[in-house]
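Lab notebook, design round three. We kept the backbone fixed and only want residue identities now. Task for the bench partner: fill in a sequence for the structure below.
Input structure tokens:
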């Protein structure tokens, strides 16, 4: 992989104990309250300081913000535009590090013609670094670290 102009090699070993030891992944039951209709606020945030799980510090650009009304409080989610028009976000919540992994990733479909976006937090998934220290995932930016 390439990071800040430096190239590194990631070794994949399908026979590694961590690969063989996973039989299932615990998950939360689906919750319709975590499917939120909102609008994308195209407010670019450039040069946001970020930190990867290996301590590497860098900056990232975010292309917009989604404001979500969750059952236990309102939050904001900074998102990055992907090549296919969808969005990506990393976030953590009150369960992170205790009841769940430290953070999760989420893909969000492109906005509809009217600018509306459905954010389905039920579709959040574990980052690769949850399964191996060989992956250097970036922690969520401060705006995406929720206390609810």
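Proposed sequence:
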């Amino acid at each position: 992989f390439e990071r800040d102009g430096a190239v590194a090699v990631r070794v994949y070993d399908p026979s590694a104990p961590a690969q063989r030891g996973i039989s299932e992944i615990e998950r939360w039951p689906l919750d319709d309250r975590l499917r939120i209709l909102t609008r994308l606020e195209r407010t670019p945030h450039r040069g946001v300081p970020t930190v990867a799980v290996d301590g590497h510090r860098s900056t990232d650009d975010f292309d917009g913000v989604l404001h979500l009304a969750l059952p236990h409080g309102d939050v904001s989610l900074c998102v990055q535009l992907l090549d296919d028009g969808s969005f990506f976000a990393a976030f953590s919540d009150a369960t992170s590090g205790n009841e769940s992994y430290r953070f999760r990733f989420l893909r969000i479909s492109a906005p509809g013609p009217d600018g509306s976006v459905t954010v389905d937090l039920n579709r959040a998934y574990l980052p690769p670094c949850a399964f191996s220290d060989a992956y250097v995932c970036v922690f969520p930016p401060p705006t995406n670290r929720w206390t609810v």
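Keep this in mind before ordering anything: Helices lie at 17-20.
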